[in-house]
Structures are given as structure tokens and as C-alpha cells.
Amino acid sequence: MNHLPWRAAMERALYGPQGFFVREDSGPATHFRTSVHASPLFAGAVLRLTRWVDEALDRPEQLTVCDVGAGRGELLLALGAQARAVDPALADRLRLVAVERAARPEGLPAWIAWTDRIEAVPAGLLFANEWLDNVPCEIAETDDDGVPRYVLVDPATGAERLGEPLDAPDAAWLREWFPGALTEPAERAELGRERDRAWAEAVGAVGRGLAVAVDYAHTRADRPPFGTLTGYRVGRQVEPAPDGSCDLTAHVALDACLDAATRANPRVTHSLWTTQRAALHALGVNGARPPLALASSDPAGYVRALASAGEAAELTATGGLGSFLWGAQTVDIQAADSDDAGPLGGWQTLVS
Ligand SMILES: C[S@@+](CC[C@H](N)C(=O)[O-])C[C@H]1O[C@@H](n2cnc3c(N)ncnc32)[C@H](O)[C@@H]1O
Which residue among 18, 23, 134 is best mutated to probe the pocket of ligand 1, counting the most ligand atoms within 8 A of its Cβ? Predict the structure, then answer.
């Protein structure tokens, strides 16, 4: 097998015939644990965000929640169930849409719509947890003369070699988003133009509301010098072999994605980012232990609260899920700079 550019190799390994994410025998949850799988508290936080968007939009007749890269629909299942329990009137107005390249799982309730491409979200929330890190990308590495070149890979063995120097658009992207990097031999970067394009298109689907991307990510202040591409298989981190046997993931240049969406969509009113830890704290998820007194007054309640505190701690752990970044873009709503910034208060504004 000939060597391929990494983007083509990832595309085939993840989404080609029998690709890692699209074959029927296993979903993402079989291989790694996202925040969605870690705890229903995550869906609860997304529901709180949904309710805030609903208010900012003056409670439209129909409010869409669109989950991009929905896995097997786990987030929308939990969100829909929680909405019925805490706010049935909102639940009646919710349209829940899963966007996923894998087929609709059998047995998924009819109240979740399933599509393989992003459709219009006239009013609502577009949410993408761990989607962009799986959007295939090119990888660049500096050769012995200090020239950044595409990295090519043999899909059968994972062996790499360097290919052509970067074309003009990728070289320009690298200069803009990794300034001063890839000057020393063996420095690497995952090139973000495909992720930028994907995110700009996603945000462009939102008529009014909020778009949020949550991912392993970096910004200009903390770019990794040697790349981040890695693999996951059945719970283990493995060498990133593009043979369909494992997940292939590379951290996202989140500021570049937000910037691309802002440039492409004049209706974007605010571009903000923060850590998952801060975002979830603002949405009421924190790992505080319940008061000890509860153990005697309500032992079962105490045990439940303790378990929930443990899950919240996992979702917000620095160095773990809590260090993921959340990027948020408001579309045609002004709430983020009013006194009522709600859960987006205190987030950092994107500096392009
Ligand atoms: C890491 S999984 C995340 C699943 C889920 N969001 C979660 O957090 O548990 C990434 C998912 O994104 C899906 N995906 C990747 N690119 C996509 C695209 N362009 N459109 C729809 N789904 C996509 C993959 O098939 C995979 O199921």
C-alpha cells in the first residue's frame, strides 16, 4: 500500500467502508470514555445551557438541540429524559437532532431525529462534544533543513515519511495559528483548515442561538510543539495506526475554528472560550462533597450525593476532562455582553 497524506488515511480509517466509527459492531463508548459517558451530570449541564438559550431567544415555539458527532445518541437520550423530568413544557417544544456519520442505532426513540449532515437550526443550541478532534486533518513536520512538509503514512503499518512542502493555504494557516513554530527539525503540527471549515459550516447552520464545541484543544498561548495525534482502542491509548482498528484523534486549534466561524458568519455576535471545569462550574456542576450531617438524616440521599460529587469531580478534573476547552459562539443574540450573561459570564473573549 502506498503512503497517503494523513487526512486521507484518517478519513478512510474512521469513516470508510468498515471504518472505525461507522461499523455497526461498536460505538465510541466501547473504546473511550467521553464526558457524555462519564455522567448524566454532563447532559444536565447541557440542559441548563439549553434553558438559558431558550430564555435568550424568548421561548420560541420550537427549540432545536442539535448534537453534532452524536455517537450513539447518548447525550440527547439523557438530555431528553431530564428535560421531561424537570421542565415538561420545554420538553414539548424541544426538537432533538443527532448528526452522525454512523447509522441510527436500533431502538433509539422516535423523539430523536437522526441525520448524517448538519441541517438548519432555526432557533436553538448546536452542541459538539469531541467531534472536531475526529475531523481528519493534515499533519506537518519540519524536515532537516527546517522546511515544513506534509507527513505521509502507510495505512497498513503506520510507518511515516515526509512528502511535499506545504501548499500556500496550509503554510499561511501555520504561520497565522502556530506563529514561529515548525522551524526546528521534527517539530510537528496538526493543520486545522478542515476543522475550521467544518466548524464554520456548523455555526452557519444556526439561525439564532448558540453553538458550542467541546474538545481536547489548544490556543495560541499553549500550542504543543510535537503534535498530539494518538489512538484509542478498547479503553487503551495506542499508537495511531490508520488501519480502522482504533480511534484517531488530534487536539483542536480551537481559537482558529472560532475565528473561521466568525469570519464566515457575520451574525456571530460573541466568540468565547473557557475550560470545561469553569464552564461546568457555571452550569452548577461541582465536585463538592455533601455535608456529613446528611449521612445521618438521609443515608440513601447522602450516598447518592457522594456518587454524584465523584462524577462531578471527574468531569471537572484539571489535567483530565476538566481541562477540555469549550468554545461558544452566540448567533444573533446579544445576551453574552449584558448583565444576564448567564453561564457564559466570565468566559474569555476570542482574540484573533
Ligand atoms: C469521539 S466520538 C464523540 C461521540 C459523542 N459526541 C460523545 O461525546 O460521546 C466522535 C463522533 O463524531 C462522529 N463524526 C465525525 N465526523 C462527523 C461528521 N462530519 N458528521 C457527523 N458525525 C461525525 C463520529 O462518527 C463519532 O461518532
Answer: 134
> Residue type at 205?
A
Each domain of the chain, given as residue ranges in start order, spans 31-137+192-216+251-286+319-349
Q: Which residue has the cell 431567544?
A: 57
Residues in CB range of 168: below 8 A, 6 or more apart: none
Residue 270 in this model has a pLDDT that exceeds 60: yes
Cβ(232) – ligand 1 distance below 6 Å? no
How far is the C-alpha of 110 from the C-alpha of 62, rounded, in Å? Answer: 17
- CA 279 vs CA 170, 296, 323: distances in Å: 32, 33, 10
Q: What is the pLDDT of residues 31-54, one digit of tens each?
A: 788 999 999 999 999 999 999 999
Given a contact cutoff of 8 angstroms between Cβ atoms, the answer to whether 214 and 276 are in contact is: yes
Question: Does the beta carbon of 133 sit less than 6 angstroms from any atom of ligand 1?
Answer: no
> Model pTM?
0.96
Q: Are 128 and 202 in contact (CB under 8 A)?
A: yes
For the chain, how far is it from start to end, CA to CA, in angstroms? 41
What is 31-137+192-216+251-286+319-349's CATH number? 3.40.50.150
pLDDT tens, residue by residue, 203-256: 999 999 999 999 999 999 999 999 999 999 988 999 999 999 999 999 999 999
Our answer on whether the CB atom of 276 is closer than 6 Å to any ligand 1 atom is no
How far apart CA 150 and CA 189 sit, in angstroms, is: 10
